[in-house]
Amino acid sequence: MRIAINTGGGDAPGLNAAIYAVTLAAHRRGWEVLGIHSGYAGLLDASRITVLTPERVAGIVAHGGTILGTTNRGDPFHYPVVDPSSGQTQFEDLSDRVLANFRKLGLDALVAVGGDGSMQLAHRLSLKGLPVIGVPKTIDNDLSATMATFGFDTAVSTATEAIDKLHSTASAHERVLVVEVMGRNAGWIALHSGLSGSADVILLPEIPFDIERVCQHLTESEGRGKRYGIVVAAEGALRRGETPHTRQEALPGRLEPLLGGIAEWVAAEITRRTGKETRSLVLGHLQRGGSPTAFDRLVALRFGAAAVRLVAEGRRDVMVAFHPPEMLAVPLADAVVGIKRVPLDGDTLLTCRELGISLGD
To answer: Considering 11, 116, 140, 142, which one is annotated as catalytic?
Structure first.
């Protein structure tokens, strides 16, 4: 057997642990493992392929990032290609070339590690004949077919630690601090870090908020003697009746809207409506970096080993899913039907309400 592994989408703590597990589990079976660099780019450029051995991956489990590199703009069905004559970026369907090079390399299966976008690409390539096993990773924890994805626990721990530190400076200056965390259109990071970090207000994409309710809660809290406040806002949080805040990022050949800016808007409104001195900050890619927590290492190792087991069993077009205490195989088609959002009747959210944390509604 000869298998390959790639990592796609945004980076997440635990990717190297998954690579380590796939490499060692495959080598114990006498298989060869190739590492495909930068998503599917290595299947378009043979120079971006690395032979993975136990010696090559030794010591990488505790490291953040990914030794194979990653990209969230490497869709082989819509791949950016620069026209040498004009210098303009065009987009081409190179999926057939990916499949042809995969077969030319004599590969038997691909372990594709990524989030919802990467799983959708894996499923589309599988429908074209690429034998693939998906491994879910995303700090957003928004893949519906698995209880947890690796990277989430580390991101929550990073955000919680930051919120903990903000309490002292907010208290010293009697300010309100508004913290924006990642998560796209799911509020898992904001909910878990906000609750763990004793925030006064948590704003989620799942619950459109009323800024007047937010200000009222902070004013009432001050009336009870707490002269500072902490607001945690998911980047996809939205005002009632509005759409999420976005900003434009210049990319080759186009402008792409990205979520962001909600914390700055909320902070300005709190100051305008209450007169309270307010500051905002965006944690951004801090949440993606650093060494994975023990939980993320363990889950990533289990995901990687389970993926190799599924390859050995002849399974294809499936994703490894964590359903405690087991790792199961679910069809990729089921894994990409929609994102997993915070349930409004979930115990964690109910705990926020029981503790008097405002959700802006």
So the answer is: 140
Chain centre to alpha carbon of residue 178: 22
| Residue 345 falls in the annotated catalytic set | no
Q: What is the pLDDT along the chain (361 residues), one digit of tens a residue?
A: 999 999 998 899 999 999 999 999 999 999 999 999 999 888 888 778 999 999 999 999 999 999 999 988 788 998 888 888 887 888 899 999 999 999 999 999 999 999 988 999 999 999 999 999 999 999 999 998 999 999 999 999 999 999 999 999 999 999 999 999 999 899 999 999 999 999 999 999 999 999 999 999 999 999 999 999 999 999 999 999 888 888 766 555 555 678 889 999 999 999 999 999 999 999 989 999 999 999 999 999 999 999 999 999 999 999 999 999 999 999 999 998 889 999 999 999 999 999 999 999 9
Instruction: Choose which CATH entry (3.40.50.1100, 3.40.50.460, 3.40.50.20, 3.40.50.170) describes domain 153-288.
Output: 3.40.50.460
Instruction: Answer whether 282's CB lies under 8 Å from 2's CB.
Output: no
Does residue 5 contact residue 38 with C-beta atoms inside 8 Å? no
Find how far residue 259's CA is from the centre of its chain. 14
Q: Is the dihedral of CA 301, 307, 311, 312 positive or negative?
A: positive
Domain boundaries, the chain: 2-150+292-335, 153-288
Class of the 2-150+292-335 domain?
alpha beta
2-150+292-335 shares its CATH topology with 153-288: yes
